[in-house]
Write a structure and sequence with these properties.
The chain is α+β, with helices and mostly antiparallel strands and 728 residues long. It folds into three domains: 31-172, Glutamine synthetase, N-terminal domain (Ubiquitin-like (UB roll)); 186-580, Glutamine synthetase/guanido kinase, catalytic domain (Creatine Kinase, Chain A, domain 2, 2-Layer Sandwich), CATH 3.30.590.10; 595-726, Up-down Bundle (Four Helix Bundle (Hemerythrin (Met), subunit A)). The protein is built from 27 helices and 17 strands. The strands form three sheets. Strands 9, 10, 11, 12, 13, 14, 15, 16 and 17 form a nine-stranded mixed beta sheet that branches. Strand 3 and strand 4 (112-115) form a beta hairpin. Helix 24 packs antiparallel against helix 25 (682-693). It is globular. The two termini are 18 Å apart. It binds adenosine-5'-diphosphate and magnesium ion. The site of magnesium ion (MG) has 3 residues, from loops.
């Protein structure tokens, strides 16, 4: 083992789990650092409180005088909790979170000072955020960006700082973040779903989209992680031969959580409780040192904020435990990657989960309406949904045989497949009373109330129905959930609007009864959505061929996947629902393409550096040792030496072959990069990085990994997979 590796492994082995004091009941500390309704009741006047509650429920504006009251109350609460600073907390288009802290502290002359947070500072700020990506929005409009308070996501205290969730928009109103379009999409689906709900229940006033994410991650000892330049700079290993033992024994999955990891999780969960993130589930994942954490689902905007916050908190807490959290979708070749399943549903203000079958035929017809409309929405917009989860890092995971493929398909299970098959045979036009009764009793009425335990869990599907929700599994572990959630809620909103228009037309023009009209439209949807339904093995090669026949897209790389984002149909879709105007849509397309290029560029540089500066010199060193050895053998055995030096000579030759291959590939890759960098067009550049630069990654890796197997372990510079994955 090389000295560097030795010290890293030694340091990690010597670490003991931190003692975590968490003997308080979780329900008692839940939300302690959140300015939630309980604290608002304590610190706000009645008018102020009602004004916030109304803003949350109905999206009404809060006037400045009231804002002054709210900010004063919020500040008082924060100070009693030990906060000294406040910040507008937002999510720029980097996908990460951003904050700029200001102290409450203000001088008032005569050497005196007070703590202050005015209404103005609460409601709006103008961070000098000119370095955030904006996709040309601010250049075009020569306007600055400002952050504006989002009262639907409560303020919280973290690290003695009051964090106020905000949207980030340009002076002319264009969204510069992921939250703004999400909020608009949630509004769109709310409106569309309420309108459809009225067919079934006039009391429905609001429909909330819910999101329950499941965060997968790796925990690697920080000494080991920092000994790898690739992990440090790219979040993944670009080299490393598979260890003799990987995950083939399945002995990590749901196994006992190792002591240090457990102490980290308890610490993390404690923080989450204080911050009101309702984490519930923790377990070992498939790969060694891989874990998962999942909360109880929440309203989608809050859930998105909570996931972004969680990813930050995870990294911060990890420092205390000398861990590095790897959020990357594929940190290690040959072992399981990480995803972030997005469980999604729609719930009414009357407490009904619209994707949960009910007790009566009528409630089941409502369930089927939302169920089938969702399928239809995914069928129509599968390519856009694929684009919503595209990123340089997720490209390594999708289709990697333990993650959903790049093809979007919907799995619904055998029972619901039967229901849809029967519904499809319903006569066109008005139904006879007999037929209607039959349908209601024998088809719709027979959907079991609890599907949860009956739906088989097809893990290979990218979009699966799991009893009372859909689970979007293709989302990557580093993703900001706002992206997939914006698209999903937008396409479902659009679909529900179209559905309502079709049903209303049948009622008005053909004088059909409501139920007849609904059955008629649903029947057509079942017919036209068939291509997206797939119950088989999503990992198989046959599915790729079948999907192609069905006309489903299979965009394997990010540049290919993103193309749909600038299509006229996409721009029109977002514009028509008020989610994004064309400037906002195109800005996101550009930023994501740019992001892809930069990520591949950085990886390519790191690969070149490590190959040339770490691997090749080590190979030469070892080759010299072998040469010395051969020379020695020659002195002893004279002309006969070859009989004793066969292995050494073979190794010397192989090493030369690999060094040569590495060197020429790095040179060619660098040349390819130079050509790409000269390309002015974003498309060509991304395409070049994807198809001209990236293919060298595997070639270079192949030769470096071969050398790892040959070279004396005592001088190999890179911490090995077995050390990274099996040191606990
Ligand atoms: P798994 O998929 O790991 O087998 P479950 O299906 O039981 O586990 O739950 C996964 C996640 O689904 C949980 O985080 C849970 O909060 C979320 N979930 C459950 N019901 C809903 C819902 N109606 N809307 C959104 N998410 C939900
Ligand atoms: Mg799941």
């Amino acid at each position: 083992m090389s000295t560097l590796r030795f010290h890293a492994v030694k340091a990690s082995l010597e670490r003991k789990p931190l003692k975590i004091k968490d003997n308080q009941r979780r329900s008692e500390i839940f939300g302690e650092n959140v300015f939630n309704e309980v604290s608002m009741r304590q610190y706000l006047t009645k008018t102020a409180l009602n004004s916030v509650l109304e803003a949350i429920e109905k999206g009404t504006k809060i006037n400045r005088t009231v804002a002054d009251h709210i900010s004063a109350g919020m500040k008082e609460w924060a100070i009693t909790k030990g906060a000294t600073h406040y910040t507008h907390w937002f999510q720029p288009l980097t996908g990460a979170t951003a904050e700029k802290h200001d102290a409450f502290f203000e001088t008032i002359g005569d050497g005196l000072a007070i703590e202050k947070l005015g209404g103005d500072q609460l409601v709006q700020q103008e961070p000098d955020a000119s370095s955030f990506p904006n996709g040309g929005i601010r250049n075009t409009f020569e306007a600055r960006g400002y952050t504006a308070w989002d009262p639907t996501s409560p303020a919280f205290i973290y690290d003695k700082t009051l964090c106020i969730p905000t949207v980030f928009v340009s002076y002319t109103g264009e969204a510069l973040d992921y939250k703004t379009p999400l909020l608009r999409a949630l509004q769109a689906v709310d409106n569309a779903a309420v309108a459809v709900c009225k067919y079934f229940d006039k009391n429905v006033k609001k429909v909330n989209a819910s999101l329950g994410w499941e965060q997968e991650y790796f925990l690697i000892d920080s000494a080991l992680a920092t000994s790898r330049p690739d992990i440090l700079l790219t979040g993944r290993t670009v080299f490393g031969h598979s260890p003799a033992k990987g995950q083939q024994l399945d002995d990590h999955y749901f196994g006992t959580i190792p002591g240090r990891a457990m102490s980290y999780m308890r610490d993390l969960e404690h923080q989450c409780m204080l911050l009101g993130i309702p984490v519930k589930t923790r377990h070992n994942e498939v790969a060694p040192n891989q874990f998962e954490l999942a909360p109880i689902f929440e309203e989608a905007n809050l859930a998105v904020d909570h996931n972004s916050l969680l990813m930050d908190v995870m990294k911060k807490i990890a420092e205390r435990h000398n861990f590095t959290v790897l959020m990357h979708e594929k940190p290690f070749a040959g072992v399981n990657g990480s995803g972030k399943h997005n469980n999604w549903s729609l719930t009414t203000n009357t407490g009904v989960n619209l994707l949960s079958p009910g007790k009566t035929p009528m409630s089941n017809l409502q369930f089927l309406t939302f169920f089938i409309n969702t399928i239809k929405a995914v069928q129509t917009h599968e390519e856009l949904l694929r684009a919503a989860i595209a990123s340089a890092s997720n490209d390594y995971r999708l289709g990697a045989n333990e993650a959903p493929p790049a093809i979007i398909s919907v799995f619904i299970g055998a029972q619901l497949t039967n229901v849809l098959n029967e519904l499809e045979t319903v006569t066109k036009g008005k139904l006879s009373p007999q037929e209607k009764t039959d349908l209601k009793l024998n088809v719709v009425g027979k959907i079991p109330e609890i599907l949860l335990d009956n739906t088989d869990r097809n893990r290979t599907s990218s979009f699966a129905f799991t009893g009372n929700k859909f689970e979007f599994r293709a989302v990557g572990s580093t993703a900001n959930c706002a992206k997939p959630m914006t698209v999903l809620n937008t396409i479902v909103a659009k679909q529900l609007i179209d559905f309502k228009a079709e049903v209303d037309e049948l009622i008005d023009k053909k004088e059909m009864k409501k139920d007849d009209a609904i059955f008629n439209v649903l029947r057509e949807y079942i017919k036209t959505s068939k291509a997206i339904l797939f119950e088989g093995n999503g990992y198989s090669g046959d599915w790729e061929k079948e999907a192609e026949k069905r006309g489903l897209s299979n965009n394997k790389t990010t540049p290919e996947a993103l193309k749909i984002k600038k299509a006229k149909s996409t721009i029109d879709l977002f514009e028509s629902l008020g989610v994004m105007n064309s400037v906002e849509s195109l800005a996101r397309y550009e930023i994501e393409m740019e992001d892809y290029i930069l990520h591949v560029q950085i990886e390519s540089r790191v690969i070149g550096d490590i190959a040339r500066n770490h691997v090749v010199p080590t190979a030469v060193r070892y080759q010299n040792i072998l040469i010395e050895n051969v020379k020695g053998l020659k002195t002893i055995y004279g002309d006969e030496f070859k009989n004793y030096a066969k292995a050494q000579l073979g190794l010397i030759e192989s090493i030369s072959t690999h060094i040569e291959a590495i060197n020429s590939s790095v040179t060619e890759m660098t040349e390819a990069r130079k050509i790409c960098n000269k390309d002015a067009s974003l498309e060509k550049k991304a395409d070049g990085y994807c198809n001209k630069v990236k293919p060298f990654f595997d070639t270079i890796r192949y030769h470096c990994d071969k050398l790892e197997l040959m070279i004396d372990d005592g001088i190999w510079p890179l911490t090995k997979y077995r050390e990274l994955l099996f040191t606990k």
